[in-house]
Design goal:
Layout lengths: L1 H43 L2 H7 L2 H11 L3 H7 L8 E7 L2 E6 L3 E7 L2 E12 L2 E8 L2
Antiparallel strand pairs: 1-2, 2-3, 3-4, 4-5
């Protein structure tokens, strides 16, 4: 009986471990999809679609600093598409997408993954410098 209980515990532990890996993989795929949607819309100049992928606080910050609605404010920015996605790192509800020429930071919301910062450049010893970010 003890052997059977131990065997069941091992099977349950493996099931939890495997399902956990699936969750990380799924979050990574969803983050990549949000990144690609952002980049495609940006490349097409479809700023209303770009705004849909931005986090609410990022939209608010952009509109306040530009004094214009999100889509128009983005049109006035010098943000360029960052190219192909190279790496996606997911840490719980936060993620970083490293592109060929940009880095995006994303957060998970009830509506899915949203970009909280874009146009980000690494700086040694200090946080990234981002062209667009939430407050």
């Amino acid at each position: 009986m003890a052997g059977r209980a131990r065997g069941t515990a091992v099977v349950l532990a493996l099931a939890v471990a495997v399902s956990g890996c699936g969750a990380v993989s799924e979050r990574r795929d969803d983050t990549r999809a949000a990144t690609v949607a952002f980049e495609e819309a940006l490349g097409e100049g479809a700023y209303a679609r770009v705004c849909e992928v931005l986090a609410p606080a990022t939209v608010d910050e952009l509109e306040q600093s530009a004094g214009a609605p999100c889509a128009r404010a983005l049109g006035e920015e010098s943000l360029e598409p960052g190219g192909a996605v190279r790496v996606v790192d997911v840490y719980g509800n936060q993620a970083r997408a490293v592109l060929a020429e940009d880095t995006l930071f994303l957060s998970h919301f009830s509506t899915g993954w949203k970009v909280v910062a874009a146009g980000c450049t690494p700086r040694p010893g200090t946080p990234y410098q981002c062209e667009i970010k939430g407050g």
